[in-house]
Structures are given as structure tokens and as C-alpha cells.
Amino acid sequence: MGGRGPADPIPLRDLYELLKDEFGEVEMWSAESAMEYACGAVLVQNTAWGNVQRTLEDLRRATSFDPARLLALDEAELIALIRPCGFMTSKARALRAYASWALDPAGAAAPGLDDAALREALLALPGFGPETADVVALMAYDRPRFIFDAYGRRLLRQAGYEVGRRYEDARCAHEAAAHAGGFDAAELKDFHGLIILAGQRARAAGGWELYGPTIGISVVMTA
């Protein structure tokens, strides 16, 4: 008698269409500049989005998300502004690093870099790990990046993918599947928002194992 194993994973394009059918249009956070997107991506690390929204409004009033004005703040001022998001010292350092880079010729040339070179440049900045770099590349520079964050990994696991606990493990294993979906940057931004909304619904329902089958996301076991 043959053993039982998972069926083939659900293709990412099919997952996108399932979520789109379920939720329709999702209202996404829309920033007005690359600096604002970078601030959001850094500040959201290990904190709730509500804290980030309040902090972004404070930063807007103080700097208008002008990199030069952010750099003109002294360290104590910047730390006080971002205190609600926690890890203030490291996040302040990351925001200053991005602002300096944005004003430097290297940062000014970022829109002309290919996707791999842009990711490498962002990863070189203090406080920019793989997830933050990919979010900024997608949201601020319109690069087609699937975001393998905790929400994304939980969805992929429910859809039949072998997913590790680390962002880079999932990205290295499944980035080819994301490319195979033929997504453009606008679709991947939408997909990211849909995944977050679906993940919130799944958590409220008791987890993806319970919620997934109700919206057609479950892998049938085959003999």
C-alpha cells in the first residue's frame, strides 16, 4: 500500500485569483514617496501597524518625509518621534541610513538598477534585512517581489508548499514559483494586501487549517 503525501502545491497565480475572488479590491497603504515607504517598512518591524500609522503621521508633520529634513533632526528628536514603534535606536539608525543613501548619488541612481543590484544595495543598509529590502523594492521602486513574510509563509504552507521558518529559506525555495506566476509589481502589491487580510481572517477563525478550506485553499491528500 503506497504511502500518502501532499498533492502538488496550488500555483501562486491560482492562489491570487482565489483571494481576489474572495475579497475583491483591498485598500492598501499608499505612501507618497520612497522615503515614506522606507519609513513604514522599517518601523513595522516587530510592532503593530497601528503604532506605525501614528508614528508616520508624526514624521510627516516633522519632516514631510524629506530625507534632508529627517537627517536634520538630532538623534533624540528622531528617537522621540518613533518611540511608539519600539527598538528606537536601531530603527533611527536605519532611517538615517536610508535617508543618507537616498541623497547620495548611489541612492539617486537606484531606479536605474536592475532588481538584483537594487536588492543588494538595500540589504547593505543598516536595519534592512531581506523582508524590509523586498518590501521597499516592491512598494517604493515597483520591483516585482513576492513578500515571504510570516503572512505569506503561512499561506504557502496551507497551499502545500514546504516552507521553513526563515524569510530567506522561503524566498530561495519558492521565488521561482512566484516568477512562474507572471506577476507584475502592481499585482504583487495587491497580492501582499490580500495575503495580510486573509491571514487576519484565518487567525480570527482559529488558523489556516480551519479557514483555508472555506475559501478553497487546501491541498487534497493523495494515495
From TrEMBL:
Residues 43-201 form the HhH-GPD domain. InterPro entries: DNA_glycosylase (IPR011257), HhH-GPD_domain (IPR003265), HhH_base_excis_C (IPR023170). Pfam families: HhH-GPD (PF00730). Transmembrane segments: none annotated. Coiled coil: none annotated. GO terms for biological process: base-excision repair. The keyword Iron applies. One of its GO terms (molecular function) is metal ion binding. Keywords: 4Fe-4S, Iron, Iron-sulfur, Metal-binding. Gene3D superfamilies: Helix-hairpin-Helix base-excision DNA repair enzymes (C-terminal), Hypothetical protein, domain 2. PANTHER family: A/G-SPECIFIC ADENINE GLYCOSYLASE/ENDONUCLEASE III, DNA REPAIR GLYCOSYLASE MJ1434-RELATED. This is Base excision DNA repair protein, HhH-GPD family. It comes from Actinomyces massiliensis F0489.
